[in-house]
Write a structure and sequence with these properties.
The complex is a heterodimer of chains A (322) and B (338).
Chain A: H1 13-32, H2 39-64, H3 72-89, H4 94-118, H5 123-142, E1 147-148, H6 155-158, E2 160-161, E3 164-165, H7 166-184, H8 186-196, H9 198-203, H10 208-234, E4 236-237, H11 245-255, H12 267-286, H13 294-321
Antiparallel strand pairs in A: 1-4, 2-3
Helix pairs in contact in A: 1-12, 1-13, 2-7, 2-10, 2-11, 2-12, 3-4, 3-5, 3-10, 4-5, 4-10, 7-8, 8-10, 11-12, 12-13
Chain B: H1 2-23, E1 32-36, H2 41-57, E2 61-65, H3 71-82, E3 88-91, H4 98-108, E4 112-116, E5 128-131, H5 134-148, E6 153-158, H6 165-179, E7 184-190, H7 196-209, E8 216-219, H8 222-235, E9 245-249, H9 253-260, E10 266-269, H10 272-287, E11 291-292, E12 297-300, E13 304-306, H11 314-333, E14 334-335
Parallel strand pairs in B: 1-2, 1-3, 3-4, 4-5, 5-12, 6-7, 6-8, 8-9, 9-10
Antiparallel strand pairs in B: 10-13, 11-14
Helix pairs in contact in B: 2-10, 3-4, 5-6, 7-8, 10-11
């Protein structure tokens, strides 16, 4: 039941623009560097992209219902601590520690969602407060020291199937499911409707408050999954996990076409957004960009990618007008 | 009516506060306060040195850990501590320039300060800094790496925070050493990594981009060292890949494990417990009436190169350095009370 303000996802013009930008970046880097197409480069790029996708999804699920979460990184951090406690301190089997950690992420998201909807407080304020609470908990519990994880726990984060990282395969499947959910399920369309036009959605009988809670629960789940996989990749449950996720979560989600005002999301767009973000970061190292100006270059290139996409969109709208 | 109740409540509370404060017994505060910026593995190790000082001397130290690694946060917390009557402070300078203002403020109140962990900008109001000589440590690391590389090859130089003045000193030290070896060059310098995740992405990208050219990697910060240990452990798991020599700084468990299993070669262990122990010992001496031998003195807390040979015993070597400095403290750095 999409409202007039919502858009059904798919390979729309915007996503197509992102695919073109990604292809262009890929081609330029292939020409610039002989080692770019090596299996190792593809491995590290695709695996890092997978993490960016998860972090972006954690933010995108809030954005799509017209909310935001400043606590995505803090939830990831808290999840990491619980995972570390489970594995090192309580000696739980890996599966149980992962379930416990993911549960904490889901609970943290649920708490955010309930506070926002029941007390009718803006998501910015709630998630800002919760961010500090979760970060305080992680520092207080861990004392800042990382936890050891067993060798076997690293299999998913560091392993691959035919050279493709397990993490990437897992995220590709998840992204497919997310796309399917928004495209073909009532639940997904209700989320879109809630973000597209909350008043219209309410009039259509959608419990928008419940949708907001669900969005935060899923956001917490994705943040927790990213944290668990990161610990598996790093081979250690480090408390600082998530400290740099906030910017990444917004950047990748927005580059990927997620609407800041809600109601718009594209799984493929987020995938392409993560590819652009990662390729630019990798490209700056490839071309030996001056490290003291690296962040400026990164910002400029992201801006350029968005401007190119915007120009294409304006041109496309004009074409339709004529 | 409501107004009278409100006034009554306020007057009652004010009276209670006055009575409690007048009748309260004066509790003595710890003579020394140690301030850690925020929960962090480095601070945990420094704190262990402070605790050792307490056990050995019986002098109580208030140990306070802040919430953020910023000078602002440190100022707020230390200023609050300053009003409680502690006579001496062991403080990490969050910002080498900004910390001097805080140190001057404490000194103005008659409180003694020793800086630990990093050197504030000079001139400084403090008489002592107890820290690693970071340029010397970076030079030692570079020498060891080049030795492991057989005196020739190309190095990936991984720095941590570009905004940290110490990063420049480390970079200068590495370049000075590399300049001594005609067969050695720095193929690329990467930096600006405040998190392990950021460091991992950058190191992996550099390795992917120049895998055939890099012979050795040097990292001179905590985050890149943890990241490089993890990246190289994964890299060396494939026996077909070339051996890349590595030396880092700091001793997270990921790093030590990678040394044990041969995935990386070495790391530089600093002496955080010594930073805590010696700074408190100095403060105690100064409170006892000893005076500094000179206006300002930097005490190098020392380093140990950790390899597979001493990965499980290096802590004893670090402790020996601390004990040596402590034994020489009076003769080398102080004048006896008049």
């Amino acid at each position: 039941m999409p409202t007039s303000a919502t858009k059904r996802p798919g390979i729309g013009g915007r996503t197509l623009g992102l695919i073109i930008s990604t292809t262009l970046l890929f081609a330029v880097l292939s020409l610039l560097s002989q080692s770019f197409l090596s299996s190792y480069t593809m491995f590290v790029i695709s695996r890092q992209m997978a993490f960016y996708v998860l972090i972006a999804l954690s933010q995108a699920f809030c954005l799509v219902v017209g909310q935001m979460s400043l606590a995505v990184g803090a939830i990831g951090s808290l999840t990491t601590i619980v995972l570390g406690l489970g594995l090192e301190t309580w000696n739980l089997p890996a599966g149980a520690a992962v379930v416990l950690a993911l549960g904490v992420g889901v609970l943290a998201g649920l708490l955010n969602g309930l506070l926002i909807t029941r007390l009718k407080i803006d998501s910015f304020i709630v998630t800002l407060s919760m961010m500090f609470i979760y970060m305080g908990l992680r520092s207080g519990i861990s004392g800042g020291s990382p936890y050891k994880v067993p060798e076997s726990f690293r299999a998913v984060g560091q392993g691959s199937l035919l050279g493709i990282p397990y993490v990437f395969l897992l995220v590709a499947v998840l992204l497919g499911l997310v796309g399917f959910m928004f495209r073909s399920t009532v639940f997904g369309r209700r989320l879109l409707a809630t973000g597209g036009n909350a008043a219209a959605a309410r009039l259509s009988g959608i419990e928008t408050g419940r949708m907001v809670v669900w969005a935060h629960v899923l956001s917490g789940a994705f943040a927790a999954l990213a944290a668990v996989l990161w610990a598996s990749k790093l081979g250690s449950a480090a408390p600082e996990t998530g400290d740099d996720w906030l910017i990444v979560s917004f950047a990748v989600a927005i580059i990927g076409g997620t609407g800041l005002n809600g109601g718009v999301i594209s799984g493929l767009g987020i995938f392409m957004g993560s590819a652009i973000f990662m390729l630019i970061k990798h490209g700056l190292v490839e071309v030996k960009a001056n490290p003291y100006y690296a962040n400026s270059f990164l910002g400029l290139l992201i801006l350029l990618a968005i401007v190119i996409d915007r120009v294409r969109q304006i041109y496309s709208d004009k074409q339709k007008g004529t | 009516m409501k107004k009278s109740i409100a006034v009554g409540v306020v007057v009652g509370l004010a009276a209670a506060v006055i009575v409690v404060n007048v009748t309260r017994k004066k509790t003595s505060v710890e003579p020394i306060a140690w301030y850690g910026m925020m929960p962090h593995p480095y601070k945990t190790e420094v704190r262990s040195g402070v605790e050792r000082f307490e056990q050995e001397t019986g002098v109580r130290v208030l140990k306070v850990v802040g919430q953020q690694w910023t000078q602002d946060n440190e100022n707020v917390n230390v200023e609050a501590l300053s009003t409680k009557g502690h006579k001496a402070f062991s403080i990490y300078p969050g910002d080498p320039a900004g910390a001097n203002a805080l140190f001057a403020q404490l000194r103005g109140r008659g409180q003694i300060v020793v800086s630990y962990g990093a050197e504030p900008d000079l001139p400084t109001p403090v008489a002592f800094t107890v820290a690693t000589d970071i340029k010397a440590a970076a030079m030692t690391a570079a020498e060891r790496l080049i030795e492991m590389m057989g005196g020739r090859g190309r190095i990936l130089n991984v720095l941590e925070l570009v905004t940290d003045i110490n990063t420049k000193k480390r970079d200068d030290g590495i370049r000075e050493v590399v300049a001594r070896y005609p067969g050695v060059s720095i193929i690329q310098t990467i930096s600006d990594m405040t998190q392990v995740s950021e460091a991992t992405v950058k190191i992996q990208s550099a390795l992917a981009a120049r895998m055939d050219e890099i012979d050795g990697i040097i990292t001179t910060g905590y985050n890149p060292t943890i990241a490089a240990a993890s990246v190289l452990t994964e890299w060396h798991r494939d026996p077909k890949r070339k051996q890349i020599r590595f030396i880092g700084i700091d001793t997270g468990e990921t790093v030590l494990q990678a040394i044990r299993d041969g995935s990386i070669d070495a790391t530089i262990a600093q002496n955080p417990p010594g930073h805590g122990y010696i700074s408190c010992l100095l403060l105690q001496r100064l409170l006892d009436g000893w005076t500094p031998a000179r206006d300002y003195q930097f005490i190098d807390a020392g380093i140990v190169v950790v390899t597979r040979d001493n990965v499980d015993s290096y802590a004893a070597e670090v402790r020996k350095i601390t004990d040596g400095i402590a034994a020489d403290l009076n003769a080398k750095y102080l004048r006896p009370p008049q």
